[in-house]
Amino acid sequence: MRIGVPKEIKNNEYRVGLVPASVREYVAHGHDVLVETNAGAGIKASDADYVAAGATIAPDAQTVFRDAEMIVKVKEPQRSEFEQLREGQILYTYLHLAPDPEQTKGLVQSGATAIAYETVTDNHGRLPLLAPMSEVAGRLSIQAAAYSLTAPQGGRGLLMGGVPGVLPARVLVIGGGVVGAHAAKMAVGLGADVTVLDRDQRRLAELDDLFGGRVKTRYSTFEALDEETDMADVVVGAVLIPGASAPKLVTREMLKGMKDGAVLVDVSIDQGGCFETSKPTTHAEPTYEVEGVVHYCVANMPGAVPLTSSHALNNATLRHGLMLADMGLEALRKDAHLRGGLNVHKGAITYKAVAEAIGAPFVEPLEALAA
């Protein structure tokens, strides 16, 4: 199979779909890899590095989309990209379709087979291809919050960990999953006063054990949200419903009770955000203010650390990518976990939460593949 790797074009996105080491793996499996020139510039990988790994360099994205049978990316295709997709072509990348009807419609119209990293599952019900970027985003959320708390950025002028005689910042993490756990880990490491809200009692017990009591845990209710947001200097939104739009847990009304210059970091923004006042931002202009509260809602946070992120992502996506390259659509029929990543196929929406989010018909994946 011919595998195509275009250069990412989303605002301030420096990651790359395949690092040179992964290209070598595809080539070793007998596949051709076509990499757009300078696709690896963000991770300091030159065209010569890709050629040494066995790739062919394409002069532009149009050549990649025209000649490749499978496109491997990082972020969801932008309009100029999904308009180049065609029936019979496989797209393997993050999609986050539920809050993005325009992209969904474009993929449906293309007739391509679109597989979303974020909905591929494993034997334990986890999301293994989402996990590495969740880890990165969770850790970055605290770095972003610490910076946004400074006075020049519109924040309260707090040092996250305080100093002797001065209290540290109070950090509230909503959601105790992968993002939330890594955010809490970073915040505790900086010396912050950290509370995690979640509705899974077992997960709260796990976090209490993991952090040895250094993190306070609380069952998430509307009352708990009200009370904790009022006291927080930083709120990290780390809520995930796989494939679906994130619930709006922090309302505009709640902002009025928050401290002036407090910071919200919405890591759920790829799925529409879990704060009512969230809207996607970029690394170029990462924050805005509503009701005196600083909002950080960058939709591709891990793109700020592309070297770490690209290698971590490739470690997770390579095995399934090779399955697709080796077996084509048969890999989706044989592997139920990989099939969980199938969101669109030949004009049909094959992930229920996406279909529900945009009010479109849902087709069972195996039914769509058989057709």
Per-chain topology:
Layout: E1 2-5, H1 20-28, E2 32-36, H2 47-52, E3 56-58, H3 61-67, E4 70-72, H4 79-82, E5 90-93, H5 101-110, E6 113-116, H6 131-148, E7 170-174, H7 178-189, E8 193-198, H8 201-211, E9 215-219, H9 222-231, E10 234-237, H10 252-255, E11 263-266, E12 287-290, E13 293-296, H11 306-327, H12 330-334, H13 336-339, E14 342-345, E15 348-349, H14 352-358, H15 365-370
Parallel strand pairs: 1-2, 1-4, 2-3, 4-5, 5-6, 7-8, 7-10, 8-9, 10-11, 11-13
Antiparallel strand pairs: 6-14, 12-13, 14-15
Helix pairs in contact: 6-7, 6-11
Protein model, in words:
With 371 residues, the chain is of the alpha/beta class. The protein has two domains: 2-120 and 305-370, Rossmann fold, CATH 3.40.50; 131-304, NAD(P)-binding Rossmann-like Domain (Rossmann fold, 3-Layer(aba) Sandwich), CATH 3.40.50. It has 15 helices and 15 strands. The chain has an eight-stranded mixed beta sheet with strand order 3-2-1-4-5-6-14-15, sandwiched between helices. Helix 7 links the parallel strand 7 and strand 8. Helix 6 (131-148) crosses helix 7 (178-189) and helix 6 (131-148) packs antiparallel against helix 11. It starts with a strand and ends with a helix. The mean pLDDT is 97.
